[in-house]
């Protein structure tokens, strides 16, 4: 039943993907062409261009980790970021996004980078340091000075705003 | 294939129903089914609708509630309808995308009869397992490829072996119900959208909040709320008092009270006179004096005096109700979303809104995130400050003492000045200089300008958290302004007494005037035509009520003008000067002395509150006041929003306004009480003027109630009322109410304590259950070992030590079990 794949692809998402680079993306995906859109195109999408974390988002969802996305990655990304995705799924991907150095822990330097992106470097160094310390203080349950996935999930699961802010509508 | 897909669709719905999924939140369930009833291809758009719907429907509730609801519906939808979801996301599935397949595909491979019962059972189990896998597939953090492969395999399996699981039921009725439910959902969603869009100035306030923090924004939110109240008051006075008299009452010029006296006619249209609310403005529906005391007017038999009285009482009652209800609601909400345990973490990880797609909004969001962090940092620093408690206490006592001296001094000064001005008035105003004539006003304005600055300086001694310091400042300026209010009322009462004296004289004069008229007509052989007197020529009593109304209106106008002019000069001109003179000035104007002004929250809030107090006091005597106030608030909103964004800088120390805003409400309540007292006093004790207003001719204004009871209601009604006002009944009633208040107070206290206890319990049990990693690991280990080898103490004790280690303090030694890394 492989032929049926193209017929039932959600036309709109595919169209958006294709619109980014019509010359690169073929209309017919039955032969699983290996097409990757470079990060610059993804990052210039209107839904993502104002997001301070767009690069991280693209890196997390791309196969090669560089931000160059195939159609699968593209669909995956918008699936996780849609409103329907379950909370735990979102939490695990959010963890990956905020883990800048990809070491499966959110350490202090990751936090500092997150904070600076969030405030566009408007906080002083002291303030940034204080906030990072407070975050580790609040969420680190096993006392290793950095946030593991379990710490992060434990904290984010209670957040009232998480589901509504970690959401992109396309 | 598509055809079959559609049929499978309907069948699946039924199966769903039969499987009892409807037992979940019926609304979500229906939405589920409705989703399934549609075609796959458009699932994308639909899904968007659903998202919106979920969002908007919950858009107006509190944040926590909103997200809990979202969660719930999301969970339900997740469990029930990933199919749609999955499809919409356009995974390259083959046609069916029947997430939960219960296709009763008649002609498939197996015949149920060919299997033995046990095999049937096993098959069912396997199918169920696959279905569960398909359901949970969305939640697994696998890569897309892996998910697709698994999905395809499982779907094939389920399709092949599903077999006879159900028969179809009547489809049409169901489809119709689903369609109606869908339409209803859409209507509700649109209505919610509409209601949210109707809230005025939301975008403005959001912008201000993101740049200046929540304390400045709280002023504007308060302003908007006041605007709402004033709209209702305006509706009442306009619709029930001004319009009936204008439409159905006697027109201008028909009776003396409605006509400008002959002496004033020449100047009645002058702008200066009109600005002062004399002339034609005075003899119009704007003021009390115009209204006729005819009991019922027009073809509707509209009871004008009764309506006037009831509207006056109603505005006060409505205001009380609204203020108290808002206070109660704020008090409730402040307890709910109080979880502070992850404050900074949540700010860091959940404050950026991924939906933002517009650079300006993004700018605002960055500003607001920065502000919010600064606020939180400030709170943290304040809470960490440990100080020398004795020194602080001493300083605070000293500061309060100084402030009290200040207030006492200003109170005495005002009293002294008022006495002097009363003496001057007796001497005749012309013999004094300008200063002496306007002494009271000048002294009050000067006090109002300098004392708050003094209080500000004194409060530096106290070293409070900025929010608390603001409240103290507000309280002190409030006490100062009470002095102003007191002088105003004294002056007013004096004038009223003067006018009443005058009235007596005029009454006497009128009788002699009438007598002279009568004599002159009689002397003409009583065959001449009856003399018609022009209404303008009739001698008029001084209508003290209109005078009171005019005073209030003038006060409001001058207050408004002062505010706007100070705004323009103090803020705007200053900003312009600093900005442009900076290029050619010796020192840095922007950083140094004048610099840009900050938004004065306390001054503005108090101005607003006192303004509203004046409205409440004067609305009975000048029905035009709420209308004026609506206009004023409307203009204020735009002007101040513009001024804040254009001329002010955010405060250095940005602090979070107390979420409940109950402090403003409390002050408003005090002012409401204080301002209704004089009005009530005048209504109850002073007899109304004899020739103006809807109560003229009565002994007391509230006699109109008596009159209505007697004439418009059946006889037993008035008997009941008169017996009810017997002190023998009233006193026990009051006693009962006091007891009820005491009882309610004590139960509410006990509820609050129970609430706190429950919260604590919830926290500890959640912690136990959920994600203590060492406990989970230890739990697994325990399960692997003998179930009850160590009895109940072992695991439990292990749990306990694990929890305390995990959560209590960070300085404790590591947990004994190795963490999972």
From TrEMBL, chain A:
InterPro entries: CIBP, EF-hand-dom_pair, EF_Hand_1_Ca_BS, EF_hand_dom. Keywords: Calcium, Magnesium, Metal-binding, Repeat. GO terms for molecular function: calcium ion binding; magnesium ion binding. GO terms for biological process: calcium ion homeostasis. Pfam families: EF-hand_7 (PF13499). The keyword Nucleotide-binding does not apply. The keyword Lyase does not apply. Residues 86-121, 127-162 form the EF-hand domain. It comes from the Eukaryota. This is Calcium and integrin binding family member 3.
UniProtKB/TrEMBL annotation, chain B:
It holds the Pfam family TMC. Keywords: Membrane, Transmembrane, Transmembrane helix. One of its GO terms (biological process) is detection of mechanical stimulus involved in sensory perception of sound. Residues 543-658 form the TMC domain. Residues 27-48, 68-88, 97-111 have a biased composition (Basic and acidic residues). GO terms for cellular component: plasma membrane. GO terms for molecular function: mechanosensitive monoatomic ion channel activity. It is a multi-pass membrane protein. It is found in: Membrane. Residues 1-117, 778-821 are annotated as: Disordered. Belongs to the TMC family. This is Transmembrane channel-like protein. It comes from Dicentrarchus labrax. The lineage of its organism: Eukaryota, Metazoa, Chordata, Craniata, Vertebrata. The gene is tmc1.
């Amino acid at each position: 039943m492989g032929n049926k794949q193209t017929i039932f692809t959600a036309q709109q998402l595919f169209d958006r993907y294709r619109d980014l680079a019509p010359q690169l993306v073929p209309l017919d995906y039955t032969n699983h062409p290996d097409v990757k859109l470079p990060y610059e195109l993804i990052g210039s999408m209107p839904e993502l261009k104002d997001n301070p974390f767009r690069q991280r988002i693209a890196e997390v969802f791309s196969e090669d980790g560089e931000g160059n996305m195939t159609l699968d990655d593209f669909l995956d990304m918008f699936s996780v970021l849609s409103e329907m995705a379950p909370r735990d799924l979102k939490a695990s991907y959010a963890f990956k996004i905020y883990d800048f150095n990809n070491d499966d822990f959110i350490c202090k330097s990751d936090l500092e980078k997150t904070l600076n992106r969030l405030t566009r470097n408007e906080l002083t160094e002291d303030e940034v340091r204080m906030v990072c310390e407070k975050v580790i203080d609040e969420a680190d349950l096993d006392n290793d000075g950095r946030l593991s996935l379990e710490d992060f999930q434990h904290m984010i699961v209670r957040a009232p705003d998480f589901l509504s802010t970690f959401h992109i509508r396309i | 294939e598509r055809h079959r897909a559609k049929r499978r669709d309907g069948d699946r719905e039924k199966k769903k129903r039969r499987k009892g999924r409807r037992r979940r939140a019926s609304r979500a369930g229906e939405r589920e089914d409705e989703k399934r009833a549609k075609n796959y291809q458009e699932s994308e758009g639909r899904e968007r609708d659903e998202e919106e719907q979920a969002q908007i429907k919950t858009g107006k509730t509190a944040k926590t509630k909103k997200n809990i609801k979202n969660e719930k519906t999301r969970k339900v939808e997740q469990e029930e309808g990933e199919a749609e979801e999955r499809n919409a996301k356009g995974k390259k599935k083959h046609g069916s995308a029947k997430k939960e397949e219960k296709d009763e595909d008649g002609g498939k491979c197996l015949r149920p009869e060919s299997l033995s019962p046990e095999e049937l059972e096993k098959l069912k189990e396997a199918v169920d397992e696959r279905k569960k896998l398909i359901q949970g597939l969305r939640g697994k953090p696998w890569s897309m490829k892996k998910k697709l492969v698994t999905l395809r395999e499982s779907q094939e399996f389920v399709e092949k072996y599903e077999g006879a699981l159900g028969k179809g039921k009547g489809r049409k009725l169901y489809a119709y119900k689903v369609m109606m439910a869908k339409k209803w959902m859409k209507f509700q969603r649109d209505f919610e959208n509409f209601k949210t869009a109707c809230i005025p100035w939301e975008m403005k306030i959001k912008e201000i909040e993101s740049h200046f923090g929540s304390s400045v924004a709280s002023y504007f939110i308060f302003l908007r709320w006041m605007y709402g109240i004033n709209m209702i008051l305006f509706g009442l006075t306009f619709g029930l008092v001004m319009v009936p008299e204008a439409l159905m009452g006697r027109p201008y010029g028909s009776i003396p009270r409605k006509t400008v006296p002959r002496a004033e006619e020449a100047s009645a249209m002058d702008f200066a006179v009109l600005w002062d609310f004399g002339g034609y403005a005075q003899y119009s529906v704007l003021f009390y004096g115009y209204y006729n005391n005819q009991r019922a007017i027009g073809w509707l038999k509209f009871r004008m005096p009764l309506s006037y009285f009831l509207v006056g009482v109603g505005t006060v009652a409505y205001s009380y109700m609204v203020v108290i209800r808002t206070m109660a609601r704020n008090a409730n909400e402040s307890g709910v979303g109080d979880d502070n345990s992850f404050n900074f973490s949540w700010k860091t990880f959940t404050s950026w809104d991924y939906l933002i797609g517009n650079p300006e909004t993004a700018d605002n969001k960055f500003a607001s995130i920065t502000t919010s962090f600064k606020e939180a940092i400030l709170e943290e620093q304040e809470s960490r400050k440990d100080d020398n408690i004795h020194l602080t206490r001493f300083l605070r006592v000293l500061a309060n003492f100084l402030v009290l001296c200040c207030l006492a001094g200003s109170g005495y000064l005002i009293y002294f000045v008022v006495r002097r001005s009363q003496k001057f008035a007796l001497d005749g105003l012309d013999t004094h200089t300008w200063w002496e004539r306007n002494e009271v006003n000048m002294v009050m304005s000067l006090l109002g300008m300098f004392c708050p600055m003094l209080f500000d300086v004194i409060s530096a001694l106290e070293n409070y958290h900025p929010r608390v310091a603001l409240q103290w400042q507000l309280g002190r300026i409030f006490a100062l302004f009470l002095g102003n209010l007191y002088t105003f009322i004294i002056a007013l009462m004096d004038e009223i007494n003067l006018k009443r004296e005058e009235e007596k004289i005029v009454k006497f004069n009128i009788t002699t005037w009438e007598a002279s008229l009568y004599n002159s007509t009689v002397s003409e052989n009583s065959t001449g035509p009856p003399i018609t007197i022009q209404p303008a020529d009739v001698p008029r009593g001084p209508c003290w009520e209109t005078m009171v109304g005019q005073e209030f209106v003038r006060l409001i106008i001058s207050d408004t003008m002062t505010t706007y002019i100070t705004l323009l000069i103090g803020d705007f001109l200053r900003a312009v000067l600093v900005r442009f003179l900076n290029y050619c000035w010796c020192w840095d104007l922007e950083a140094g002395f004048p610099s840009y002004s900050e938004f004065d929250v306390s001054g503005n809030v108090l101005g607003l509150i006192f303004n509203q107090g004046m409205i409440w006091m004067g609305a009975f005597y000048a029905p035009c006041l709420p209308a004026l106030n609506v206009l004023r608030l409307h203009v204020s909103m735009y002007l101040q929003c513009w001024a804040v964004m254009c001329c002010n800088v955010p405060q250095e120390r940005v602090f979070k306004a107390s979420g409940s805003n109950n402090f403003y409400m409390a002050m408003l309540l005090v002012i409401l009480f204080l301002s209704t007292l004089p009005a009530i006093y005048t209504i109850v004790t002073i007899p109304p003027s004899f020739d103006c207003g809807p109560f003229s001719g009565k002994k007391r204004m509230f006699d109109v109630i008596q009159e209505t009871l007697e004439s418009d209601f059946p006889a037993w009604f008035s008997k009941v009322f008169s017996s009810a006002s017997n002190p023998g009944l009233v006193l026990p009633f009051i006693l009962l109410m006091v007891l009820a208040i005491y009882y309610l107070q004590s139960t509410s206290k006990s509820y609050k304590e129970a609430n706190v206890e429950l919260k604590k319990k919830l926290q500890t049990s959640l912690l136990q259950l959920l994600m203590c990693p060492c406990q989970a690991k230890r739990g697994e280990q325990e399960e692997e070992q003998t179930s009850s080898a160590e009895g109940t103490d072992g695991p439990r004790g292990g749990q306990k030590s694990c929890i305390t280690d995990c959560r209590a303090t960070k300085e404790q030694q590591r947990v004994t079990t190795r963490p999972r890394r």
